[in-house]
Amino acid sequence: MKNIAIIHDSYLHVGGAEKVLKYFVSAYPKADIYIPLLKKKYSGETKTTGRIYTSILSELPFVEKYASILKPLVLLYWETLNLKKYDLIISSSHSFSSKSVNKSKHAKHVSYIHTPPKYLYSELNEMNWIKKLPFSVLFWPLFFLLRKYDYYSAQKPDLLIANSKNVQSRIKKYYNRNSIVIYPPHTVAPVDFKKRKGKYYLFFSRLEKQKGAELVIRTCSQYKLPLVVIGTGSQEKYLKKIASKNIEFTGFITEEEKVLIFAEAKALLYAAIDEDYGLVIPEVLSYGIPVIAYDSGSIREIQSKQTSKNEILLFSEYNCSSLVHAIHEHKKIYKDI
Q: Is the model's pTM score more than 0.85?
């Protein structure tokens, strides 16, 4: 039996990358797992009979809040890992660049790229402030070196897998490497699921700036549209302050609670910017919930796979009036939802 290691950037919240990690572990349940930043409450989520290795960085207070500034230290962690005993290495890589690990000559390294690190390139992310003056000038030498290192790291794996054609194009642009596309797995509606008449709109994502929660909440507040917000994140307190009384925040929910909420959803309001794939979209579509989405990132890629164009309605301008216009168009099509 081959020795297998699964390397994952960080596990500080539950998102699409963490769902993919669970599928990797289910496929290789005896693999050892390396996660430098691992929140204790998630340590039992990876069902492996192998060992789980983390770093001293996980013990730092407020590691979740200040994880972004630890990225250079995480790069050092990858370089110091001793993975010589493994025959196969599977890395799950996004902003913390787990593709950077070294391997023995006989081993194979397959890296699943959720995206090249957005804070180093042009795509929007929660560290976008660092790309603006005066920070862009102040940190230019550091980010120049980090981009060089990121390119070098991307040449290490034997095979790069992109989670979408959108990310595949980024890999070619930034790393000058070919990759294959394997879409991430997603959960689907239970066989006995029954959709009921919709009572509210739905926002389902981590509450980070690039996920678009602020636009959705401001729109629903302004036009008095009922909205249920599923998710947590660094913007949660701020978003609750700007939300009107017709907006409910659920925080983290169980799968059973999710099914109950989905049953009465009119549509998913999706306003992510430069999203890599958007795992929540095919998931909610399997529940018979239409999607009203901002025309950005991989959304047209997902739309092209649907049997009906009306399942995903797009709005092109990033403002409340454009979103609410799409919502009115949705009402005309889905009168009974």
A: yes
